[in-house]
């Protein structure tokens, strides 16, 4: 029972690592050249601060996720992992929200501010950004589940001890 | 000792409630009329989805913060509060990141995408958004401190029990 649970959690962490890593890679490799009024323009992630933040945050969380995978199950560091999970889940949430906000403007524009949508000019770039956002979103959801599970796991035994 | 600690935590929660509420109100009341090429334009928060999300998220977290203030100290619901704190801190983090990403474009523009900065036209509106973001940021920091403290509080006694 304990072994199955541990295997499940490890699998979830592996999946989370995979999603954040692929999110970072897909976003970092997104670029497309286009001609805009006879001027060659290259759309790439590094032109947008929010997308750069997304790549850096997902890279950091991937590195953390990889390290946690190799933590021995008996280690007392697992107590620290819950606190670190909180910090890194917040970092991930923050990066994906910022990237999503910018991507929304890129797709629909904002007529009040006079910002035109750019996805019509660079559809391939937009699709790749969308893919990266979906991968990042899966990562956030898995980390949130892991975090809520850890909290439930730590608090429930206490409640049972009391009653 | 326990009483001082509880008072401190209550004070922090009160402060967090104040910041999220003022963030929501300051953002919701931000608007400025300006003439842009002989056309009257009104800049307000509801024109930007990310700012609307910011107001809604800060409103929800304020309501939650108010409810928690009236929770009796002996209540077993405090165990649930940790899990809820995780969810609401993530919501707050997400909303402030999205609003910050849009505000950054509003302030500096994005020359690659052809989005011009708008803060030159509506400086009062921009200042008010900046104020709301700072208030929201204070709220996020307090909630993160509370959350990490709760986790430390729950885990440390366990560690002492073991050794």
TrEMBL record, chains A, B:
Keyword Signal: yes
Topology with respect to the bilayer: Multi-pass membrane protein
Any Pfam family hit: CASP_dom
Chain ranges passing through the membrane: 50-70, 77-102, 132-151
Subunit and interaction comment: Homodimer and heterodimers.
Family indicated by similarity: Belongs to the Casparian strip membrane proteins (CASP) family.
Name the UniProt record assigns to this protein: CASP-like protein
The organism of origin for this protein: Morella rubra (Chinese bayberry)
């Amino acid at each position: 029972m304990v072994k199955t649970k541990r295997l499940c959690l490890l699998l979830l962490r592996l999946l989370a690592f995979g999603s954040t890593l692929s999110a970072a890679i897909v976003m970092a490799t997104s670029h497309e050249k286009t001609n805009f009024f006879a001027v060659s323009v290259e759309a790439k992630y590094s032109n947008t601060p929010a997308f750069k933040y997304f790549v850096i945050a997902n890279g950091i969380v991937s590195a953390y996720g990889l390290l946690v995978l190799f933590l021995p199950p008996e280690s007392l560091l697992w107590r620290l992992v819950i606190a670190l999970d909180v910090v890194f889940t917040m970092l991930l949430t923050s990066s994906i929200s910022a990237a999503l906000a910018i991507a929304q403007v890129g797709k629909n524009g904002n007529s009040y501010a006079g910002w035109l949508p750019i996805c019509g000019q660079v559809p391939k770039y937009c699709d790749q950004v969308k893919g990266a956002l979906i991968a990042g979103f899966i990562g956030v959801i898995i980390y949130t589940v892991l975090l809520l599970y850890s909290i439930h796991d730590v608090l429930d035994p206490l409640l049972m001890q009391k009653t």
